[in-house]
Inverse folding.
């Protein structure tokens, strides 16, 4: 494989880099791209071979499936099912931006992101280059562009130091997060698979910001009080609660290394 790094601050290289990245994605290869949070390694979300290559490049197993970046809110219904009104409100308020939401995946989709237990983590990035690429390629499986357990890459050069020749195309566009940011804040992750939205990882969007849009968002580890539980919920639902807790743990693992 012949790796090429493009400086996308130069318009001619930007156009050439996007075209090359699109071709690489179509050929089931991996690429590195900037997002609004950190640099990410990306692959065709609908190609099991490409996703397996991404996971291998990071040194990760199938127990930590990568999230999927989308280019517009309308794509949500094509990839997820049982999307609540509250989840839509958060998407409309914070997409594009630093919010990842976990949904039940559309059962008709032919993809294999790993051991996701029928869920998918979705985000729309607030980055012009990333959105331009997503418009060309469609949804991409994306994780932070670093080996698991190693420092997060803030630019294309740092990503290449860790990932090397396994990546076909590196799209560079300066530092991420952009100059002026004091620290790297990953996206906030919200589990939208239950009756109530629940934060499973704190990040760029604060709990206060989420609750300004949907007051009922639960914090990490916050329990639903008896007064808040629907009257029709039967007492034997404790078994369902246990299953839900297991699913929540899986959700956290699914997006633990998300950009």
């Amino acid at each position: 494989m012949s790796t090429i790094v493009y400086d996308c601050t130069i318009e001619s290289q930007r156009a050439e880099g996007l075209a090359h990245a699109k071709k690489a994605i179509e050929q089931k290869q991996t690429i590195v791209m900037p997002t609004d949070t950190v640099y990410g390694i990306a692959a065709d979300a609908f190609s099991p071979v490409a996703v397996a290559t991404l996971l291998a490049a990071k040194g990760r197993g199938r127990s930590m499936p990568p999230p999927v970046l989308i280019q517009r809110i309308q794509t949500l219904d094509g990839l997820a099912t049982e999307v609540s009104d509250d989840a839509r409100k958060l998407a409309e308020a914070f997409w594009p931006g630093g919010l990842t939401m976990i949904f039940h995946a559309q059962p008709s989709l032919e993809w294999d992101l790993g051991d996701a237990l029928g869920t998918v983590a979705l985000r729309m990035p607030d980055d012009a280059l990333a959105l331009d690429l997503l418009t060309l390629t469609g949804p991409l499986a994306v994780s932070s562009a670093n080996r698991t357990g190693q420092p997060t890459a803030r630019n294309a050069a740092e990503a290449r130091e860790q990932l090397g020749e396994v990546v076909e195309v590196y799209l560079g566009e300066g530092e991420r997060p952009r100059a002026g940011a004091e620290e790297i804040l990953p996206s906030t992750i919200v589990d939208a698979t239950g009756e109530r939205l629940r934060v499973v990882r704190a990040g760029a969007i604060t709990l206060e910001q989420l609750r300004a849009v949907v007051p009922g968002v639960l914090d990490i580890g916050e329990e639903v009080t008896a007064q808040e539980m629907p009257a029709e919920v039967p007492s034997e639902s404790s078994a369902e609660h246990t299953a839900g807790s297991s699913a929540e743990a899986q959700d956290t693992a699914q997006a633990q290394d998300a950009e």
Notes: The chain has a mean pLDDT of 87. The domain at 4-254 is CATH 3.90.870.10 (DHBP synthase). The chain has eight helices and eleven strands.
